[in-house]
Design brief:
This protein is α/β, with parallel strands linked by helices. The chain has 8 helices and 6 strands, in the order αβααβαβαβααββα. It folds into 2 domains: 202 residues, Undecaprenyl pyrophosphate synthetase (3-Layer(aba) Sandwich), CATH 3.40.1180; 36 residues, no CATH class. 44% of the residues lie in helices and 14% in strands. The N terminus is likely disordered.
């Protein structure tokens, strides 16, 4: 029995290191819909806010773990959707407060680990305190070159696309571009994610199998991975399992299967 346990531990950690040290089949960009905080708390008889607090701890561990994978350059995290404003005011206020507190608490370590933080979403809807914290973390981590972390706050894909259409329409009206010059690349560069490669893998925790207005344009050819695990319970081993599953997917992009795969 003891030998079997040692074996499992050894094989497990070996597989992990093997993946961490190769760039082959490692997704360069992982996006995560971090869902299930409320249900995690409810199942423990706790307030929803306890689930969100535990969710921040989970995020800290995942970012630390993600930074170990050679080849993984971008992590996009769905933090707060435009639809989430419809939640009870106490929950929204608590989430915004938690966001600001987490920025202050994590800033030092993020800088030490050379992690660059970018925030995408509509800043008009945010309080001045929140935008000040966002500006601070973006400015302080701007030179980070290890991993880029994109936080989606007051984000929805339809709002992002609407904003992109308005930008392009204004450029047409100003005579800067002709309507027939608008192609997929022009639209891509008018999105909040301009300059960031599309996600290779989108993970959703918490058991729901939907995108909830997340990266609808950018995720056109992303691999999707759904897990029942609630976000506060999602740890490095779960991330590793998702990356391993991704490594076995055959991405065809509409073309025919490559026999060499
Ligand atoms: C995700 O967890 C966090 C946010 C949307 C802010 P939820 O709060 O949606 O948790 P569930 O889905 O209610 O369990
Ligand atoms: C998606 O989760 C948004 C975030 C994780 C920030 P929701 O809990 O808001 O999505 P629905 O309501 O289940 O679609
Ligand atoms: Mg949810």
């Amino acid at each position: 029995m003891a030998i079997r346990i040692i074996n499992i531990i050894f094989v497990g950690s070996f597989a992990n290191e093997e993946l961490m040290n190769t760039t082959e089949k490692i997704p360069g960009h992982i996006a995560i819909i971090m869902d299930g905080n409320g249900r995690w708390a409810r199942e423990r008889g706790l307030e929803r806010c306890e689930g969100h607090k535990q969710g921040v701890s989970a995020l800290r561990n995942i970012i630390r773990s993600a930074a170990q994978y050679k080849g993984l350059r971008y992590m996009t995290l769905y933090v707060f959707s435009t639809e989430n404003w419809g939640r009870p005011k106490e929950e929204v206020d608590m989430l915004m407060e938690l966001l600001c507190r987490s920025i202050v608490n994590e800033l030092h370590e993020l800088k030490q680990e050379h992690i660059r933080v970018l925030v995408i979403g509509d800043r008009n809807g945010m309080s001045q305190t929140v935008t000040e914290h966002i500006d601070l973390i973006e400015k302080e981590t701007a030179s980070g070159n290890a991993l880029t972390m994109l936080l989606c706050i007051n984000y929805s894909s339809r709002a992002e696309l609407t904003h992109a259409m308005q930008t392009l329409a204004a450029r047409v009206a100003a005579g800067e571009i002709n309507p027939d010059e608008i192609d997929a690349d022009t639209i891509t560069s008018a999105l909040y994610t301009s300059g960031i490669p599309d996600p290779d893998l989108i993970i959703r925790t918490g058991g729901e199998q939907r995108l909830s207005n997340f990266l609808l344009w950018q995720g056109a050819y992303s691999e999707l991975y759904f897990t029942q695990t609630y976000w506060p319970d999602f740890g490095p081993a779960d991330l590793d399992a998702a990356i391993k599953e991704y490594a076995h997917r055959n991405r065809r992009f509409g073309k025919v299967c490559d026999d060499k795969e």
